[in-house]
Amino acid sequence: MRNSFTSMVDCDTALQLIAAYAEGASVRPLMHVPLAEAVGRITAHDVRAVSARPEADISAMDGYAFSHAAMQATEAGLPVVGQMAAGDLPVPLPVGQALGILTGARIPQGADCVMAKERMYLTETGLVQPAKMLAECGANIRRAGEEFPQGAMLVTRGTRLDWRHTALLACQGITEVAVIRPVRVAVVSNGAELAEDASDTRADSNSPMLAALLREAGAEVVLYSVPSDDEQKLSETLAQAWAETDVLVTTGGISVGQTDNVMDALRSLGAETVFRGVTIRPGKPLTVMAQGKRLAFCLPGNPGASAICALVFLLPYVRTMMGMVASTSQVPGITDFAFTPVAGTTHFIPVSFKIEPQGLRLSAVPTVGASDIIVFSRASALLRIDPDYPVEAGQTRWVLPF
């Protein structure tokens, strides 16, 4: 039978085969981008602290700085000799005097205590003293390097930058970041039902969905469409897409029907099959083909199956190519349902979770099958269920959050 599933692999074998190609992929070139434009990019190098934070002992609040021993030794209070703000260079504090100080200002030599302005009393003669209790020695002083010392690791290679890293790098005066050049991915939809003039035209939801998933992972995406069942047109589009991008992704056209032409079109371009079909539900038709070191991920046409195959198999490959950790962090939860997998089949089911005192409670989300789209907006995570590990209520299971 054309495109038959005579040599399917199990889930782990498929993941291992993909990982081997990812490790053999050429090293991505790096590029430098302004820090303000680096959100979503993948760091090409480790970034270490240029200086400690804080660089020096600084005041944690607006108030007065003084010698604790000097304030403790007087009942009248200490005379105030001016004020320091952040950015002022400090001069030594004269013995027996206090200094007005603002948040972030450096602590002058001779001061070892800061008290908030509202906790101090300023006399008519210009002396300052605690309104009630004297703070402890060292109070309200942020010590040099208490956040991190010079040379500390701030961002490791392969990190996808977000607003947190922007703040961290900006505080070090870093204005430009070396990042991995994004992987370019072609997403190719196909099928006569996608044509606007088709008698039963269908909207293409898979391409925008896959593009969004890939862009969230940091990839650049180029969309192609072949709204016909013509194998020659499909081959021409696939050839163009593969020539212009690093990874090829198709959606639909990989089952055993007469109009499922993706595999034949790829073979005409010299591609060889890495594996044909995976013993999973949904997503059994998933096929991966290779042209040299480059891969084509042929995803099922059903949107639910396509999304799951992208999450489980495609995204780890793309992340590895960009120098990231391939796997996404999983979280544990307690199941409130039972599920028995089909023999020899790994299942992926959408689940929701609710935060409870004992942790996350995982609940199965009803679904109508591989074509279901709305189930993902009702779910919070994806649960893998291996064939020999049925789910029982009350189990701890690890899930992949969306």
Automatic annotation (TrEMBL):
The keyword Transferase applies. It comes from the Bacteria. GO terms for cellular component: cytosol. Its cofactor is Mg(2+). Residues 186-320 form the MoaB/Mog domain. The keyword Ribosomal protein does not apply. InterPro entries: MoaB/Mog-like_dom_sf, MoaB/Mog_dom, MoeA-like, MoeA_C_domain_IV_sf, MoeA_linker/N, MoeA_linker/N_sf. Pfam families: MoCF_biosynth, MoeA_N. It is an enzyme of class 2 (transferase). Pathway: Cofactor biosynthesis; molybdopterin biosynthesis. It catalyses: adenylyl-molybdopterin + molybdate = Mo-molybdopterin + AMP + H(+). Belongs to the MoeA family. NCBIfam families: molyb_syn (TIGR00177). Catalyzes the insertion of molybdate into adenylated molybdopterin with the concomitant release of AMP. This is Molybdopterin molybdenumtransferase.
